[in-house]
Amino acid sequence: MNNGNIMEIKELKKGFDNGRIKALNGINLEIKKGEFVSIIGPSGSGKSTLLNMMGALDSADEGSILVAGKDLTHTKDLSEFRSKEIGFIFQLHNLIPNLSVLENVTIPMYGNGYNSKQMDVRAMNLLKYVNLQDKASRKPTELSGGERQRVAIARALVNKPSIILADEPTGSLDSKNGHMVLENLKELHEKENVTLIMVTHDMNVAAMAERTINVLDGKVQN
Ligand code: ADP
Description:
By secondary structure, the chain is α/β, with parallel strands linked by helices. The chain has helices at residues 47-54, 78-85, 101-106, 116-129, 145-157, 175-191, 203-206, and strands at 5-16, 21-32, 36-40, 62-67, 70-71, 86-89, 163-167, 195-200, 211-216, 219-221. It has a 6-stranded mixed beta sheet with strand order 6-7-8-3-9-10, sandwiched between helices. A 4-stranded antiparallel beta sheet has the order 2-1-4-5, with helices on one face. Strand 4 and strand 5 (70-71) form a beta hairpin. The mean pLDDT is 93. Residues 16-17, 21, 23, 41, 43-49 line the site of adenosine-5'-diphosphate (ADP).
């Protein structure tokens, strides 16, 4: 992929329930390196299934998907690909309650050749970007929902992934906190030069992106 694309998806299909449910019904899509795109569509249209394919969390039935130069349909060690290339942000942030904020952010760095000083410096820098440097030693339970989601953003970026996949990152937040989370995401996408792909059913949230991809009945609408 030397054409500037970080992702190329062709005729991707995925069924559930022995093929009775066609979650993805021939998705064709190209995403440029460094782009910020949102994927929008009603509930059940296939957005999360598509995001799971992009993050190599599930495999397709048919078609091809190339991510960061890797053909995911023919890659064996997907966990290495995932930890190197992808940062995930979900609606529920899945922070570990009895670890500090700083420790939660450094977790993905273990086993990647960093010493503890390097891990702390990198994590603190990201916590500064999301304005949580003062809360680094707190536990996630002492934070608001918006603050926890900002910790999840810092954690997703800590290994310098090439792609961030965010599934309804503001889904559980009020509009003020949701807006702050989106601002942080957008800023960090520019600063870290990371491709940002965000799933949402909310038009206002989708409008923050540079490009909107509409999904309906498992297909991209033109
Ligand atoms: P969205 O994220 O747009 O709400 P999904 O990708 O979650 O849509 O779902 C697309 C369709 O696939 C829906 O009909 C959903 O019920 C079905 N589906 C998704 N995941 C599964 C699963 N693990 N088992 C069975 N059906 C599923």
